[in-house]
Amino acid sequence: MDKIPILRMGAFLLVTIQVDLYDRLALNLEADLVQMVNNTNAKGVLIDISAVSIVDSFMGRIIGNIASMSKILDAETVVVGMQPAVAITLIELGLPLKGVHTALDMEKGMNLLKSMIEVTEEDEDQEQDDDLIAE
Amino acid sequence: MILSLSKDTIQVLKEQDVVFLKNRVKETAVKIKMGLVNQTRLLTAASELVRNMMRYANGGVCLIEVVSSGRNNGVRLTFSDRGPGIPDIAAAMRDGFSTGKSLGLGLPGTKRLVNEFDIKSKVGEGTVITIIKWANG
Amino acid sequence: MSLKTHQLLQKKKKIILELWMKNQLADEGLREDLISNEELRMQSEELIDALIGNLSGANFTNLDSEEWNPVIEILGGIAITRARQGFSPRETGNFVFSLKEAILEVLQGEIPNDAKALYAESTKINRLMDNLSVVTFETFIKGREEVILRQTDEITEISTPVIRVWDGILALPIIGTLDSARTQIVMENLLQEIVETGSSIAILDISGVPAVDSLVAQHLIKTVSATRLMGAECIISGIRPEIAQTVVHLGIDLSNIITKATLASALAYSFRAMRLEVRKINSLQKN
């Protein structure tokens, strides 16, 4: 059975999709990824789709699902490297992928994830500080 | 006046057939020098329609044709199945309508991606969907 | 055409050429700026040779027959070059018409006493030359159409330049009406450029767009959404007050899009987003 490898890097999970997804592969990826987020307590998921030439409504839905499911498990999802032709097609298809963060490449995606997680951590620090003052 | 220049029929019954079909569509589009964005639109549209065919009718047949309208060349795809048919085509063509568990973007979204879209369906007999994507346009 | 006349024209070829050249050179519409006299003479001579060589054929009036191919080819070649060089239709037409006159003049001089024969031969020559004129015009117009098609391509090319205004910031000024075909090109160019330069902000300046209706707005929204999917931000600038008015009157929702009145304020916004600062340096300060 084909599987798309998921790499762990610190608090992040990296997925690079190198083949055009067929439905079963995409469904497996969704299941594996959510499982992995839970197991590793990851804070961010980075999906590189720069090698994907077609995203139809089914794949679009899977990507949206991964983002929503990860969010519930407290992890942000960033999709990086979408090809221009794919972006245009998705918009015309009527799938703007709301709720999914995007970035131009891996590096920018990583920075985006870091900044999003920093913000939440800073907030937590802030709360702790406030607590101290209250005491 | 649209002339058909070449014909190629592909049976789609298994998931591997879907991959084969997509490759053939892509080859055909490349052959008539279709731009990358239009290729992507055509392939995405084909992907939507073939999924519908697999899901609702357990497969069917796709006819791939190179067509010409004089100035412009294009690819015409005809998907025919012997599935249950669509009772209310107008509803099926509305954004957000779905009888299955999907986003309901399949048919209306596909229509937005191609230049010509035609659907004929009879309940109990099957559905025929024809799309054309021109190389330029 | 009778054998006699054919031989006669063959013999008088030189004189016809001279007469024709005289006609052409005397014409007020002569375009010495576009074509030199030598070149004109060469063209004319080539055509006469091919034409008179063909007059004996049985398919005299049937231009579709194969033996006319060389003549039509030469004439077509001349017409197409002229179309590209910018000759007017009249100038191109006169090229053939003046040849007709030259041939008729020679015929008249050579058959002075036989009005009937002269009439018969003249009619044939007339018919032939008229047909050739039609061919010339058809080719001329085809040549012009090619010029127009090429220019249309060039206009679409040059009308959508993507400018790199800063490292990571692209600007695309749109001038003229935005229709579906044009938006397509604009969008594709912009997205491609974003990938190539790795820019995270793109500014779409619509100062040069005369009007924004709901269709144009839809196109703009589409471009912005596609840019976002790729992971970049798209700002729309150059929105004139009257455009803001129409947008609101038409009930178009642009609230999800970052809009700025001028390119300058869009750029300022981009700098802030990229955490860049533009300051005036103190002129007294030495390095």
List the helices and strands and how they pair.
The complex is a heterotrimer of chains A (135), B (137) and C (287).
Chain A: E1 6-9, E2 12-16, H1 23-40, E3 44-48, H2 57-72, E4 76-80, H3 84-93, E5 101-103, H4 106-134
Parallel strand pairs in A: 2-3, 3-4, 4-5
Antiparallel strand pairs in A: 1-2
Helix pairs in contact in A: 1-2
Chain B: E1 3-12, H1 15-31, H2 36-57, E2 60-68, E3 73-81, H3 89-92, H4 106-113, E4 116-122, E5 126-134
Chain C: H1 3-11, H2 13-26, H3 37-54, H4 69-85, H5 89-110, H6 115-158, E1 163-166, E2 169-175, H7 180-197, E3 201-208, H8 214-230, E4 233-237, H9 241-249, E5 258-259, H10 263-273
Parallel strand pairs in C: 2-3, 3-4, 4-5
Antiparallel strand pairs in C: 1-2
List keywords for this structure.
heterotrimer; B: alpha+beta; 4 helices; 32% strand; C: 287 residues; alpha/beta; Transcription Regulator spoIIAA; 2 domains; five-stranded mixed β-sheet; 10 helices; elongated
Task: Please tell me about this protein's structure.
- The complex is a heterotrimer of chains A (135), B (137) and C (287).
- By secondary structure, chain A is α/β, with parallel strands linked by helices.
- Chain A is 54% helix and 16% strand.
- Chain A has a five-stranded mixed β-sheet with strand order 1-2-3-4-5, sandwiched between helices.
- In chain A, helix 2 links the parallel strand 3 and strand 4 (76-80).
- Chain A is globular, with a radius of gyration of 16 Å.
- The model of chain A has no long low-confidence stretch (mean pLDDT 85).
- Chain B has four helices and five strands; from the N terminus they run βααββααββ.
- Chain B has helices at residues 15-31, 36-57, 89-92, 106-113, and strands at residues 3-12, 60-68, 73-81, 116-122, 126-134.
- Chain B has a five-stranded antiparallel β-sheet, covered by helices on one side.
- In chain C, strand 3, helix 8 and strand 4 (233-237) form a beta-alpha-beta unit.
- Chain C contains ten helices and five strands, in the order ααααααββαβαβαβα.
- In chain C, helix 2 crosses helix 3, helix 2 (13-26) crosses helix 5 (89-110) and helix 5 runs antiparallel to helix 6 (115-158).
- Chain C folds into two domains: 3-152, Orthogonal Bundle (Globin-like); 163-273, 2-Layer Sandwich (Transcription Regulator spoIIAA).
- Chains in contact: A-B, A-C.
- Chains A and C meet through helix 3 of A and helix 7 and helix 8 of C.
